[in-house]
């Protein structure tokens, strides 16, 4: 499957979000990195999480799997396989965003989300949520 155009991604996104809405946050099964990787797989056919999905149960174990492949963190994986945009103002529906403090608890947490217009869909402790697009610190195109 080739790269899906942005208008096609806008059509695919509601169904992807509906399926994600039924899932609980669980590292290795449904976390922010796998949420984004599943979206990239749907859009491009490339499965960035193939070697890791279901093989970790904590975020630390997930990081160790990445390190075993010579990858420092999930953002480096995105850098290697996706096209980075020059800022959030260039983002289109269906782009993958890196956001900080996803859970809203004031932590220094960094995670992935999917651009849905003027907001970013994210997986948090309370399930699927969203944050303003301006919270994106980096944006990648699948």
Name the features:
single chain, 142 residues, alpha+beta
Short overview:
The protein has 142 residues and is an alpha+beta fold. The protein has helices at 6-21, 32-44, 59-68, 74-81; strands spanning 83-84, 96-100, 110-115, 119-124, 127-132, 136-141. A six-stranded antiparallel sheet has the order 1-6-2-3-4-5, covered by helices on one side.
The helix count comes to 4
What's the CATH superfamily, by name?
endopeptidase domain like (from Nostoc punctiforme)
Structural class: alpha+beta
Write the CATH architecture name.
Alpha-Beta Complex
Outline type: globular
Mean pLDDT: 89
Query: Strand order across the biggest sheet?
Result: 1-6-2-3-4-5
The secondary-structure element order is HHHHEEEEEE
As a percent range, the share of helical residues equals 25-40%
What name does the CATH topology carry?
endopeptidase fold (from Nostoc punctiforme)
Through-space gap between termini: 12 Å
Low-confidence region ranges: none
How would you characterize the overall build of this protein?
With 142 residues, the chain is of the alpha+beta class. The protein has one domain: endopeptidase domain like (from Nostoc punctiforme) (endopeptidase fold (from Nostoc punctiforme)), CATH 3.90.1720. Helix content is 33%, strand content 22%. The chain has 4 helices and 6 strands, in the order ααααββββββ. It has helices at residues 6-21, 32-44, 59-68, 74-81; strands at 83-84, 96-100, 110-115, 119-124, 127-132, 136-141. The protein has a 6-stranded antiparallel sheet, with helices on one face. The longest helix is centred in the N-terminal third of the chain and has 16 residues, at 6-21. The radius of gyration is 14 Å and the shape is globular. It starts with 5 loop residues before the first helix and ends with a strand. The mean pLDDT is 89.
């Amino acid at each position: 499957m080739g790269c899906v155009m942005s208008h096609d991604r806008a059509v695919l996104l509601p169904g992807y979000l509906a399926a994600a809405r039924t899932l609980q946050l669980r590292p290795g099964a449904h976390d922010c990195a796998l949420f984004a990787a599943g979206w990239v797989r749907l859009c491009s056919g490339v499965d960035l999480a193939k070697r890791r999905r279901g093989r970790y149960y904590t975020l630390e174990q997930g990081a160790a799997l990445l390190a075993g492949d010579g990858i420092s963190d999930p953002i480096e994986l995105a850098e290697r396989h996706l096209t980075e945009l020059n800022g959030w103002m260039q983002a289109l529906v269906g782009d993958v965003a890196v956001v900080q403090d996803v859970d809203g608890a004031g932590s220094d947490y960094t995670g992935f989300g999917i651009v849905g217009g003027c907001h970013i869909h994210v997986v948090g402790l309370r399930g699927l949520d969203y944050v303003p697009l301006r919270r994106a610190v980096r944006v990648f195109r699948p």
